[in-house]
Specification:
Length: about 180
């Protein structure tokens, strides 16, 4: 005997969920007469849109975000092989002093040193715009170092251009702008 699953009318089911949520909101905020219902709905809509847009939506955005995380981890661990794969051979880096350098100079600057230990690299406010096999990333990075036994922090805004080559994302251009230290 063949058993068939009952079909659920998803459109009606979704409508019930939405109407249930709206009635719950109305009941919850009924005790707050100083907040007009339309303002509450508008605020919740903005929160929902912000939450949805905060997460990468496409496969390419997820891949670029993964490469960003690998890049940060490679800087902390000073993994020259991983950094060599992430940075394109033809990369152009303009640092916060206006100096321009390439891959060789960047890898030299990131070589492990007994006097400098990178404690953490955190990317915040990350925005990724994908255009085919190219992605533009803007972010705020906060780095913690121990230099000669003394802890120090540095914050920078950066714009990085990634290109997908040989099934992996690589940085082809990077420009950084140093931010003033946080006020204590």
């Amino acid at each position: 005997m063949l058993r068939m699953k009952p079909r659920i009318n998803t459109k009606r089911h979704e409508t019930r969920q939405v109407s249930w949520f709206c009635s719950w909101l109305f009941t919850f905020f009924r005790g707050y007469p100083f907040l007009p219902f339309r303002h509450i709905v508008l605020c919740l809509t903005f929160i929902l849109v912000a939450a949805i847009s905060a997460f990468p939506q496409s496969k390419a955005e997820r891949e670029v975000l993964g490469t960003l995380k690998q890049w940060a981890a490679s800087i902390v661990s000073r993994d020259m092989d991983a950094l060599g794969r992430i940075l394109a051979d033809d990369i152009v880096i303009t640092d916060y002093n206006g100096k321009v350098r390439g891959k060789k100079e960047e890898l030299e600057a990131l070589k492990p040193s007994p006097d400098v230990k990178t404690i953490s690299v955190e990317n915040e406010d990350v925005k990724i715009k994908v255009h085919g096999k190219t992605a533009v990333v803007t972010a705020l990075t906060i780095m913690q170092f121990n230099i000669g036994g003394r802890d120090t922090a540095m914050s920078m805004r950066y714009t990085a251009v990634f290109v997908k080559r040989e099934r992996r994302w690589q940085i082809v251009a990077l420009q950084t702008a140093r931010l003033p230290p946080p006020k204590k």
